[in-house]
Amino acid sequence: MNTLVIVLISAVCLLCGYMVYGRWLAKTWGIDPKAKTPAYTHEDGQDYVPTNGWIVFSHQFSSIAGAGPVTGAIQAAAFGWVPVLLWILVGGVFFGAVTDFGALYASVKNEGKSMGLLIEKYIGKTGKRLFLIFCWLFTLIVIAAFADMVAGTFNAYTVKDGVTELAAAAQTNGAAGSISIAFIVFAMVFGVLQKKFNLEGKGEFFVGLACTVASLAIGMAFPLIGGKDAWTGFTFAYIFFASVLPMWLLKQPRDYMTTFMFAGMILGAVVGIVVAHPNMNLPMYTGFTNEKLGNMFPILFVTVACGAVSGFHSLVSSGTSSKTVENEKDMLKVGYGAMVLESLLAVLALCVAGAAAAADGTAAVGTPFQIFSSGVAGLLEMFGLPIYVAQCFMTMCVSALALTSLDAVARIGRMSFQELFSVDDMENAEGWRKFLCNKYVSTIITLAFGYILTRVGYSNIWPLFGSANQLLSALVLITLCVFLKVTGRQNKTLIVPCVIMLCVTFTALVQRTLALVNAFSAGTAVFMVEGLQLIVAILLMVPVSYTHLTLPTKA
Q1: Which residues contact 220 (CB under 8 A, 6 or more apart)?
Q2: What is the DSSP pairing of strand 289-290 with strand 294-295?
Q3: C-alpha count within 13 angstroms, C-beta hemisphere, residue 192
Q4: What's phi and psi for 299, nearest 5 deg?
Q5: Structure-derived torsion over alpha carbons of residues 284, 289, 292, 293, reported in degrees to the nearest 10
Q6: What ranges in 357-464 are assigned the alpha helix state H?
Q7: DSSP state of 278
Q8: Does 253 sit behind a cis peptide bond, omega within 30 degrees of 0 on the bond before it?
Q9: Which contacts (CB < 8 Å, 24+ apart) does range 133-138 have?
Q10: Which residue(s) pair with 163 in the sheet?
Q11: 100-109, 111-120, 483-492, 535-544 — which is least confidently predicted?
């Protein structure tokens, strides 16, 4: 089948979902454009900052469009491109976008409270503590994995036969690292200009675009050749400042600039597919069971997360975006709109992988990121873009997909840690609480544990990330159902997604637990790998079990 047809059908479905279902939800739940949002009522110049709707949209999209929509869609294509496409479209419109919008809506209607504090209000304090512990540990895994991914992307060296030498892509990787540094500098300049001159509309657009182009040009002209350890240090230093500095100074302007780059990547892929209209070479359907991945249910729904539904998104919606929305009417495009755009990105990744596959259906060789990056770079070269420029641009885009999620999750991890130890009356709280809730202390502790995980091997528990992420979405859906019911709003449309995600999560965790038990029985298990996975898998079932058991008395 022609990939152009797939993209066009998908774009129409996602747009209709936004225009019809998204607007219906907003109308049903109730949007008040005249209400003062938490960004105004709690304005502090740090986290609560009234911000233009499109800037918040850029922050939301850049933060949630991490590695997931690319890697998940391409990996799950082992089941065939049709089931992947159907889950992206159905999941994006009826699961993911609803969860993201719902989390943002509930937070804005509750003074910008994060999901953990919403659980405390509508389910109970024990539920809050369990959720925040789970949330904080979840952020540590993401910090470790994404920091390692970013540093690996910028790394200019490789080891061959025990000897360290410059990699073939050293120049391109070094340029991507330089671009990232330039992005940080220009983002802060952009943020200051926005604040001082109150830039908006065309002025904001052209200044942001100019800063983006300047960062790309300078980075390509002056590549920095460094090893993985050096880039790991840079990455953690950056996310420390992104976690503690005011949103308007670094995080928001950088996300806005990154959106230009993502837009160029998506536009380049779409135009390339329109012009070349390559065929989808991957098979439509390969069967319910895959030798490497397992059964389609639940693996498909766990693997394709960010492109369809992801619990992490709700942490962004309630953790940062809800504190910057200046008008309730912006919530639909920020919460629902950013998610359906990410679903389109997942569709494009699937189509690029399909075009890169051999005519007999054999998938292209390489990691999902390598397949996607080289595929889009090839499409950009069709328009006369120099190979070096196209490769640098796509390498930077790939790293930015991880980096923009990384700085968001680091800030959310810091907030989760603070909320875990905070009390209502912090002025009269014990000294140790005040110390742990200090934003610098909580950030250092969070990043320190994340850094340790990069060194001791986060990969030992990474296989459970997909289940943990979807467990998070199930917890959020449960909380939203309770919130809507308690506040007299319609919650029936969330019940089916909630039940399905609970089934997906528990099936995946039970299957993994049984597989680990069998490995121990057969004597093939290693404690630091299968042992840790078994412990984590069992612990993951605790918060959702508690939340489910408390629903009858709370709802």
Answers
A1: 175, 178, 179, 388, 389, 392
A2: antiparallel
A3: 6
A4: -60, -40
A5: 90
A6: 368-381, 387-421, 431-437, 439-456
A7: -
A8: no
A9: 133/420, 134/468, 134/472, 134/475, 134/540, 134/543, 135/315, 135/412, 135/416, 135/472, 136/413, 136/416, 136/417, 136/420, 136/446, 138/312, 138/468, 138/469, 138/472
A10: 160
A11: 535-544
Helices 3-16, 338-356: inter-axial angle, 10-degree rounding: 170
Question: How far is the C-alpha of 54 from the C-alpha of 267, rounded, in Å?
Answer: 18
Spacing of C-alpha 26 from chain mean position = 23
Task: Measure the CA angle with vertex 461, ends 460 and 462; round to 5°.
Answer: 100
Contact present, 122 and 554 (Cβ < 8 Å): yes
Q: Which tokens go with 335?
A: 């919460």
- pLDDT tens digits, 177-207: 999 999 999 999 999 999 999 998 899 999 9
Q: Work out the burial of residue 522: count CB atoms within 10 Å of its CB; fewer than 13 is exposed, 13-18 middle, 19 or more buried.
A: exposed
For residue range 24-73, list pLDDT tens digits in order.
999 999 999 999 999 999 999 999 999 999 999 999 999 999 778 999 99
Q: Which helix (H) or strand (E) holds 242?
A: helix 228-244
Q: What pairs with residue 295 in β-bridges?
A: 289
- Residue 553: the pLDDT is 47
For 520, the token pair is 């121990």
What three-state secondary structure class fits 465? Answer: helix
Strand, helix or coil for residue 366:
coil
Q: Above 50 in pLDDT, residue 554? A: no
**Residue 508 · residue 470 · CB < 8 Å:** yes
Nearest to 388 by CA among 149, 174, 67: 174
Per-residue confidence band for 555, with pLDDT thresholds at 50, 70 and 90: very low
- pLDDT tens string 48-57: 999 999 999 9
Distance CA(206)–CA(47), nearest Å, equals 26
107-146 pLDDT tens trace = 999 999 999 999 999 988 888 998 999 899 899 989 999 9
Whether the per-residue pLDDT at 318 is higher than 70: the answer is yes
Distances, alpha carbon 535 to alpha carbons 421, 521, 527, 532, 542, in Å = 25, 16, 10, 5, 11
The percentage of the chain sitting over the pLDDT mark of 70, rounded to a whole number, equals 96
Show the tokens assigned to 340. Answer: 């359906």
- On the question of pLDDT at 442 being above 80, the answer is yes
Confidence grade of residue 241 (pLDDT, cut at 50, 70, 90): very high
CA angle (509 as vertex; 117, 96 as ends), nearest 5: 50
